[in-house]
Amino acid sequence: MTDRTDPSAMPATPAPRVFDEDPVRPTLGQRISSKKVAPWLFMAPVIAFGLIFFILPIFYAAFISLTRWNSLTPPKFVGLANYKYLLTIDPRFWDTFWNTAYFAAGSLAIGIPIAMILAYAFTRAWGQAFWRSIYWLPMITNVVAVAYIWKFLLDDSFGLINQALGFLGLPGPGWLTNPDIAMLSTILVFVWMQLGHNMLLFSAGLASIDDSYYEAARLDGANETQVFLRITVPLLKPTILFVLITNFITGLSYFTLMLVLTQGGPLGKTTVTALYMYDMAFADLRMGRASAAAYILFFFILIVTIIQLRIFRRGGVDAH
Amino acid sequence: MAIVTSRSKTALLWTVVKYGLLVIGAIIMVAPFIDMFLGALRTPAERLARPPIYWPRDPQWINFKRVFTEMPTLVWLRNSVIVTLAVTALQILTSSMAGYALAKYRFAGANMMFRTVLGAQMFPFFLFIIPIFFILRYFPLIGGNDLLGQGGMGFLNSYSAIILPFAVSWYGIFLMRQFFMGVPDELLDAARLDGAGEFRIFFVIVLPLVLPGLATLAIFVFVYQWNEVIWTMTITRTAPDLQTLPVGIFLLRGAFTEEATQSLQQAAVAVSVLPVMLTFLLLQRYYVRGLTAGSVKG
Known about the structure:
The complex is a heterodimer of chains A (320) and B (298).
Chain A: H1 28-32, H2 38-65, E1 67-68, E2 76-77, H3 81-89, H4 93-123, H5 128-136, H6 143-153, H7 160-167, H8 182-207, H9 211-219, H10 224-235, H11 237-253, H12 256-261, H13 273-282, H14 287-315
Chain B: H1 2-41, H2 44-48, H3 62-70, H4 73-104, H5 110-120, H6 126-137, H7 159-163, H8 170-181, H9 185-193, H10 198-209, H11 211-226, H12 230-236, H13 245-251, H14 262-292
Helix pairs in contact in B: 1-14, 3-14, 4-8, 4-11, 4-13, 5-8, 11-14
């Protein structure tokens, strides 16, 4: 990019310049690096990539969702048939939808209280860098490693967890093989992955609470539990709302862990809608139907997002 | 006096509870990694014993060597490094340029573009997998394609297919804009008075000032891209030469159905985790900034 400012790198200027007639006329190089043109050149890569990899795909996906297409023969336009099939006929779509809701809500219900309590302890503990390094390890670990680490831990007969339960005389469940438990196990692994991230958000919120509130409460004789419930939680409300809602939206669109840990099984009990869409596209080659599923899920997430923005405004969260 | 002692007792109790919780949590965070590490060191005989032997009696350190000699790990590692470095470099360039334009210039459409940057972050990635796959497949004049995108394979089976969709990050633009907002306008105006062009100002004067910001973005992108699985797997499923470490390990899982061979799989998993872990432990303070910047202001 820099060589654009160098006039010698430009094609030769045609007519010889007559300086006394037009003394301030800028060269091409000067014009390109002027305040008017420069911002557009700075934006150019983002505009180009944004058009090809953001705007175009949104419309392309909408078009594909209106066709029947196996990606090998030309697509056939079918109107809204894919949407109608998924919403009214498909026996599996709504199952995956409820699995998605279960996953998103479950990871909130389990993950948020744990993250909040640990963040509260973390913010007032010595050795923050030490704790941080430990609690963030899962978050920076690739999902394939996470899946294989837990596959061994959760193994029915010889995993560390069921061995430990057996040692205590308790029957260990089939964490990943029992259809009633597999989703809960997936949620627990996901909570383990996300804990560091949520703790960080909470501890940023906690750090912004002024110490004078705590001092005043202590002078009034409040104990730690009272301080936590009466001072911390109410003042942390904007952060709690933010974490709840962003986590919920992440949970609705997430499927990588299920793809590598359980492949959606057993009996499809961990197949969330996004994973169902992915398999429809790249295992069954039903590009049209898969795109329609993606759009339905997207619209649902969009509605949740709009509701979120309303709650944010009412809850006093000053974030985008 | 009695009040004071009961108070210091509760304070002591609270301290115990606080560190107790942190220690229990820390064990749950770290133990799975140790389990994987011990698994990587077990002999086949230890795995096949019933019940299996947990602490390896004869640690098989050689498994970490076999990972490189008996599996395509070197190819995966090379691919991971190439893809991660390319994406990191591209995102640093595109994000800092666009972030600078949005922070320091008034131009037609600037506001609209900033809104797009914010709004685009709300679009979930799954929506883009299918269309981007076929956009790369039918890209005109690339990989043997004609003007209409027919006849060849487009970008498929090339590093570009893995890298290009990640060349621009909306989050990165937003993050860099925040950092550029902190650079005083007077500095830019002074440079302009001295006759410096806008590009010289950006590359020579402003960029060095936001080096901490660039470091934050770099470590953030590095960790994200090294761990990226879904897209890389989708695009390299049929191109083993292009698979990255996590993707290669996952797609080769069929080779480890025998219990006796699983130590090797666990060793490979450890190898895939290690580079990020080391980078992260060295540079974690930059990572904190990337996660907190712009997320919560309440």
